[in-house]
Design a protein that fits this description.
By secondary structure, this protein is an alpha+beta fold. The protein has one domain. It contains four helices and eight strands; from the N terminus they run H-H-E-E-E-H-E-H-E-E-E-E. A six-stranded mixed beta sheet has the order 1-2-3-4-8-7, sandwiched between helices. Strands 5-6 form a two-stranded antiparallel ribbon. Strand 3, helix 3 and strand 4 form a beta-alpha-beta unit. The longest helix has 19 residues. It is globular, with a radius of gyration of 16 Å. It starts with a helix and ends with a strand. The mean pLDDT is 95.
């Protein structure tokens, strides 16, 4: 299964204003319903699934998957983490974008076929702006996201390491809305 084709088709319906997204909950459920209606019926689509369901007992950066797609007969497992920021807090939210990517790396290392991190943003300060230093550079330029990522505000006491190298490519939708899809 080539899940990115279905993901981009879903966002095309948003662009055509055939699906309305107004918060992260609507993004998660509309996307899950779209996938449920378009994927082979042998795949189960579930929301907010705890990683323990898949036998993952070690502590990861997060413990629940936004959307999981799996087929018990073929042992295929896919995970999707979604973000739709609505409250500004740009550097903190970008740190959480990176945290989702790290989580998808961890899930992939636990036997998932493919994992994806998706962000949908209506606020242009997530993908453009004068400041391209620190956490901003990964989401406002072509600088690949890789290496040690440190919480950009407060005590800066949280950090993790991104093993892969991911260039964020924002896709235009309508108005000021854009999204990116990363396959991990």
């Amino acid at each position: 299964m080539h899940l990115p084709t279905f993901i981009h088709s879903f966002f095309e319906l948003i662009k055509l204003q055939k699906i309305e997204i107004y918060n992260e909950f609507s993004l998660q459920h509309e996307h899950g319903l779209y996938l449920r209606n378009h994927l082979d019926s042998s795949f189960k689509i579930q929301f907010e699934r705890n990683i323990k369901f898949f036998g993952i007992t070690e502590k990861l950066i997060k413990k629940e998957l936004d959307i999981v797609i799996y087929n018990s007969a073929t042992h295929e497992k896919y995970a999707i983490e979604l973000k739709f920021p609505k409250n500004g807090q740009h550097p903190e939210t970008m740190f959480n974008f990176a945290k989702d990517i790290k989580f998808m790396e961890q899930i992939k290392n636990h036997g998932f076929t493919h994992t994806y991190a998706i962000t949908f943003a209506e606020d242009k300060l997530f993908y453009s702006g004068i400041n391209i230093a620190g956490i901003y550079e990964y989401f406002r330029s072509d600088t690949p996201l890789h290496g040690e990522i440190t919480k950009p505000t407060g005590k800066r006491d949280e950090q993790f390491y991104i093993n892969g190298s991911y260039t964020i490519q924002w896709n235009y939708l309508v108005g000021s809305s854009k999204y990116y899809l990363l396959e991990i």
